Amino acid sequence: MEIGEMGGVPPGKLPVVITFMEMAKPPETPPRPAPDIAQGPVLARNCTLAYYRFLYDTIGERWLWSLRRSMDQDELSRMLADPQVEVHVIHVDGMPAGFVELDWRLLPADGTVAIDYLGLMPWAIGRGLGSWLLDWAVHQVWQRPRVRRLTINTCSFDHPAALPLYLRTGFRRLRQERKFVDDPRWTGALPPTAGPHIPLAQPPSASAPPADTPTPSTATPARPPIAFRPLAPRPPVSRS
């Protein structure tokens, strides 16, 4: 089933297809060399909430990343303080250019590691950084003992090249989930200009759009996508 086959969309909702994926064995190819322009990745030890939100908000606005914006910020701070949650940042010309978030919290229980998020700053797109950062993360995970599986996912809000990239890297599809989710531009989690390639949902209930909110007929035309994003660390829990 494609997005267009999901039937009538409730007011205030967006249709989304989430693809859950895993890698059950180490990659057979050697690590790719880093692009000449890249420095890192560097582990952001004791990553502060402000720095994380800078990365997450700047990279994720294009893709309607809203979970970490809307979750309790004290809870997010506690998660970032967990040494089993790692934020690895790459730099170009001394500036943060992207990050990958690795979640090791399930490793002791069942050998699972998750790539929670991976993305690039808008200005860093198209410079050979995204596929290299994913390759680096995959090899980094499989260097650890007791790893049995690596999970990642993507959704229909993301760059259409994300899924093929994950498949080429060695992930396989586990399942797909089709659902309707709240449009975060209506809930206030994201500004109305976020996700310009995704038409704004119909107004929830009988409310009228804010004066500065683009409607589906007048929304900003789609621009080239700027990041690859896995929505969630592992099935069956999904994130948006």
Provide a descriptive summary of the structure in words.
There is one protein chain. A hairpin with a 2-residue loop joins strand 3 (about 85-90) and strand 4. Helix content is about 20%, strand content about 25%. It has helices at about 50-60, 65-70, 75-80, 105-110, 130-140, 160-170, 185, and strands at about 15-25, 40-45, 85-90, 95-105, 110-120, 150-155, 170-180. About 35% of the residues are buried. The longest helix has 13 residues, at about 130-140. With about 240 residues, it is α+β, with helices and mostly antiparallel strands. The two termini are about 20 Å apart. Strands 2-3-4-5-6-1-7 form a 7-stranded mixed beta sheet, sandwiched between helices. It contains 7 helices and 7 strands; from the N terminus they run E-E-H-H-H-E-E-H-E-H-E-H-E-H.
Please tell me the overall pLDDT. Answer: 87
Strand count, sense and closure of the main sheet? 7 strands, mixed
Strand content: 25-35%
Tell me the strand order in the biggest sheet. Answer: 2-3-4-5-6-1-7
Question: What coarse outline follows from CA principal-axis ratios?
Answer: globular
Q: From the structure provided, what is the oligomeric state, counting identical versus distinct chains? A: single chain
- Count of discrete alpha- or pi-helical segments spanning 4 or more residues: 7
User: SSE string, helix = H, strand = E?
Assistant: EEHHHEEHEHEHEH
In the predicted model, the low-confidence regions spanning at least 5 consecutive residues are 210-240
Structural class: alpha+beta
Radius of gyration: 18 Å
Helix-residue proportion: 10-25%
**What's the number of extended β-strand segments?**
7
Report how far apart the termini are. Answer: 20 Å
